[in-house]
Please model this.
Amino acid sequence: MVSALKDKKIVEIAEKALSKYKLCDHCLGRLFAMVEHGFTNEERGEKLRRNLKQYRKIEIKDCWLCSGLFNEIRHFADIISEHLNDYEFETFLVGSKTDEEILDREQELLEFADPEYSEPLKTELNREIGKILEKESDKKVDFENPNIMAVIDTSFDVVNLQIKPLYIYGRYNKYKRDIPQTRWFCRVCRGKGCRKCNYTGKMYETSVEELIARRVLEKTRGDGESFHGCGREDIDVCMLGNGRPFVLEIKNPKIRSLDLDQLEEEINERAEGKIKVNNLHFSSKIEIARIKSADFKKLYRVTFAGEKAINKEKLKKVVQTLQGKTISQFTPSRVARRRVNIVRDRKIYNLNIELIDGATATLTIETQSGTYIKELISGDDGRTRPSISEMIEVPCKVTELDVMEIKGE
Ligand SMILES: [Zn+2]
Ligand SMILES: [Zn+2]
Model:
């Protein structure tokens, strides 16, 4: 088989380029990177040059285009490798920044070549550095989704690492009524620490987020974290049953391989019964979007107290009437400062009476995601309609609320 590099058109382009510019074999061969596979650009350049006998070999350091850049591949691989030493990873990708002048010269040269035949200088540089790193470690180049992207600035020998966050999915239970889901900064000092917050910077001593993330940060030696919950319960609401889905995002982790069963045990042990996690597994950014937008049905148990005794028959009737009904909830007064004021329609799927005792009653309620249960009971001064208080004609207030189950996950 005759090499495609001997094609008349290819030889003509090569000759034209070499008659005007001194090019090393890398830079000559790269003009025809797409012509024939199975060779490096350097090998292609050498073949072409040999065919055109009147042109002698140009040393890389004397190359008009790269002026020695391809002599430094080994050096670039070494400094990247040094930076990667601190990190555990399986896959990586090399990127590079080069002199503007080199890129300008590359543009000029490309006017001779057919863009269909050639590839950019950076592509070759990145690939050749990547090959060395692959060979000298057991790590693999990944173009789509690398654990680490290492970008080398070839003019200054500076390496910039972009570390892919580590995502861990799990479900949490919360057994104490005074713990917010996420860290809540002090309203006065906004986290700096002041007398009001006892110099903690926080409104509450701890949070579900902190109780979970602390151990994970220690193990991964990450720089920070974000907690993404599939909705949230109020501070005074327990999260029971199978727990609430969440994804914990660890930023710049140095360690990525974790024994998640062990981690689960350690988190739970340290949380001393305040919270518990289960079902931990490695996850992705896509899963955050999924659980954030999920519209899972929720099952609650709610205990409420009326201003006077609750009529059993009346409550039974009301519970029947509300089955399958849609209620309208104007943004509750207690969250109005944080949420937009709109009317939300929410479906009530199921209600059951567990207990009626004088002025106290306990119900289980299955509703559409996003229903405000406290307001469904109280009516929130007419903002939620209909409400249990309105229908039984006794003003009621929630005394205890638990999420029993998040369905559909
Ligand atoms: Zn060159
Ligand atoms: Zn403060």
User: Anything to note?
Assistant: Residues 20 and 267 are 68 Å apart (CA to CA). Residues 4-163 form a domain with the THUMP fold fold (CATH 3.30.2300.10). Residues 121-136 form the longest helix (16 residues).
